[in-house]
Amino acid sequence: MSTLSNNIKDAINRNFEFNVVERNAKSVFNMLNTHAKGSDDMVVLPHVDKVELTEIDALHDKVSLLWDDYKVEGTITWTPSKNALTKDSVVFVKVE
Fold it and tell me: Cβ neighbours of residue 70 under 8 Å, at least 6 residues apart?
């Protein structure tokens, strides 16, 4: 059965797989709130108000995506980046 949470996670996985980001809430927030390429008003997801990350282990974080009236929780899987922007750069693999 499809739920809003699953649809949001599917959209994140389809649009951000293999993106290189810093492993922190601010970078994930910025990644999720980007506009579609070439557009000033088309977005990939509804604007996320807040992102919270809690490290689980070297390759996983618990994530909470927060809006005024909704919350999506899951686990992000990362892989080390071979083309690191900074020492904290990782590659987004998926959110479950």
Answer: 4
Lookup: tokens for 58: 């070297």
| Bridge partner list, 73 | 64
Residue carrying structure tokens 């070439």? 38
Q: Which amino acid is at 31?
A: M
Query: How many domains are contained in the chain?
Result: 1
CA distance 55 to 66: 18
What pTM was estimated for this model as a whole?
A: 0.87
Nearest-5° Cα angle at 41, 36 to 16: 20
pLDDT in tens, 18-69: 999 999 999 999 999 988 777 777 788 888 999 999 999 999 999 999 999 9
Give the residue carrying structure tokens 């990644």. 31
The residue segments making up the domain with residue 47 are: 4-95
Helix (H, G, I), strand (E, B) or coil at 72: strand
Tokens representing 5? 């949470």
